[in-house]
Write a structure and sequence with these properties.
single chain; 498 residues; alpha/beta; Barwin-like endoglucanases; Pyrimidine Nucleoside Phosphorylase, Chain A, domain 2; six-stranded mixed beta barrel; four-stranded antiparallel β-sheet; 18 helices; 18 strands; 20% strand; globular; pentosyltransferase activity; 1,4-alpha-oligoglucan phosphorylase activity; Glycosyl_Trfase_fam3; Thymidine phosphorylase
């Protein structure tokens, strides 16, 4: 049944899904409940699907109240007549119910979910239930294939006639910004390595957040293709180009819940690789007590799934599992990680050698996977590209092509930030570094939103420390944020000294 209402503009914003309000008694009479979705149409060119909420004061009977996002976007004025109809229950809702009950989904059912998340037909509540369904029963490999394929197919696909290589870290370890070193090393050798990364979910920075310190990361597909043709690489945000758009909406839900299933992580990564047309892929999979993956046994299970899923899409995947007991690099937070990357590429005397070694290892493994060189020779080739300056020259080209300053120096990054040093309260040896504590402090300092916020580590695991020695320095954009970071540092033990 269709009803006609006069529009009333409300000075409210939802900050998310479009919302309309109707008088409670009137809505009940029409069988419309809070949270239901309705289709509103003013004319052939003006329509929208919105979520209904009840009110007893903001609108009169016969009126539908429109939140600001709706009347601004659709150019609606007070009194415009809207035809309102209750949306039928979509197939995606039925599919989510089925998954919550522990049943496996077909490709069509999975596609209906991804398509409706991408289009906005499924809101935050429904998407949250879908995210939670992954905990009810483990996904089969066929379901993971369906999810990956559907997620990729619902967005833009960048299909290249050339062979494309890529490297991806599952994240969760402070610092560890190896991708921004591997990309220019590989591209400097003439291979194509376009990189579409996610922003941080529960960590102080993601590759896209860190690269954004040096250059814009949001570009249309046409511009990305131009950058890749020119430089053989790019470092962009996947969400900015509509690659696997359902994934970015799911990530926002996961961020609110501070969780991500391992299967969902695999799908999230692989969907973007499928969309980018990747042929060869190295996965950096760190594990440890305070990492995303807690044990080698779980890491090995995840690695098998990555390889198996890759085969289904004709992508050759190799997973490198490494034990992670401490941050990789010295900087944690967008600008501080960018400084580490530039120090490695520019051969700075203060460059973090652990970050350099790991990046060289991963780049070498990728060269061998592509059969660019014989097994055991990749690391030496990758190392040479750093030593002769070819990797920095290539990174400079990428930064310039993406609209950044190609002559930026490492020590120019993070200038002007407020800082506060944390010192050792006793002498001894560092026997434990808590990655979770580091992440928590960085987030309180304002990372990743505040680019210069974060921590610079002065110590390493197993270092001998004297009382009063610098352990780490807090960085923040404002005194208020610095104070919050100091409070978080007071309530978290980053370095255990014995």
């Amino acid at each position: 049944m269709k009803m006609f209402y006069r529009s009333k503009r409300l000075d409210f914003q939802s900050g998310g899904d479009p919302i309309v309000v109707i008088r409670e008694k009137e809505a009940e009479n029409q069988g419309i409940m809070p949270g239901d979705k309705v289709f509103l149409q003013w004319n052939k060119k003006k329509s929208i699907v919105a979520i209904v909420q009840y009110t007893n004061s903001k609108v009169n009977f016969g009126e539908v109240g429109l939140f600001k996002e709706i009347w601004q976007k659709k150019d609606i004025i007070d009194g415009d007549v809207a035809k309102v109809a209750l949306e039928s229950r979509p197939e995606s809702i039925k599919a989510i119910n089925k998954k919550l009950l522990g049943h496996n989904l077909s490709y069509d059912e999975t596609y209906s979910i991804m398509a409706d998340i991408s289009s906005g037909k499924l809101g935050k509540i429904e998407t949250t239930y879908y995210v939670a369904s992954g905990f009810a029963k483990a996904y089969t490999m066929l379901e993971l294939y369906y999810m990956t394929r559907a997620m990729a197919m619902c967005g833009e696909m960048i299909n290249s006639k050339i062979k494309v290589v890529d490297k991806h870290s599952i994240g969760g370890i402070p610092g560890n910004r190896t991708t921004m070193i591997v990309i220019p090393i590989i591209a400097s050798l003439g291979l194509y390595i376009p990189k579409a990364s996610s922003r941080a979910i529960t960590s102080p920075s993601g590759t896209a957040d860190t690269m954004e310190v040096l250059a814009p990361v949001e570009h249309p597909v046409k511009k990305i293709n131009e950058i890749v043709r020119k430089t053989h690489a790019c470092l962009v945000w996947g969400g900015g180009v509509n690659l696997a758009p359902a994934d970015d909406k799911i990530i926002r839900i996961e961020k609110r819940l501070s969780l991500e299933t391992h299967d969902k992580m695999i799908v999230s990564i692989m969907a973007k690789k499928v969309a980018m047309g990747v042929d060869y892929l190295i996965i950096d999979l760190p594990y440890g007590e305070t990492a995303k993956v807690h044990s080698l046994k779980i890491a090995q299970k995840i690695a098998k799934k990555f390889v198996s899923l890759g085969k289904m899409f004709n992508i050759k995947v190799k997973v490198i599992t490494t034990q992670a007991k401490e941050p990789i690099g010295a900087g944690i937070g967008p600008a501080l990680e960018a400084r580490d990357v530039l120090r490695v590429l520019q051969r700075h005397e203060l460059r973090p050698l652990d970050l350099e070694r790991k990046a060289v290892l991963l780049a070498g493994k990728l060269l061998e996977l592509k059969k660019f060189c014989r097994r055991g020779h990749g690391k030496k080739i990758a190392e040479k590209q750093l030593l002769v300056g070819a990797a920095w020259e290539k990174m400079s080209e990428i930064i310039k092509a993406q609209g950044g300053c190609s002559t930026i120096k490492a020590d120019e990054v993070a200038i002007g930030a407020l800082h506060y040093e944390i010192h050792a309260k006793k002498s001894g040896r560092i026997v434990h570094l808590d990655n979770r504590a580091i992440n928590e402090i960085c987030v309180n300092l304002g990372a990743p939103h505040d680019k210069v916020s974060g921590i610079h580590m002065h110590c390493r695991l197993y270092d001998k420390i004297n009382k009063g020695a610098k352990l780490y320095t807090l960085y923040a954009e404002s005194q208020g944020r610095l104070d919050l970071g100091r409070l978080a540092a007071k309530n978290n033990t980053v370095a255990d000294i014995k």
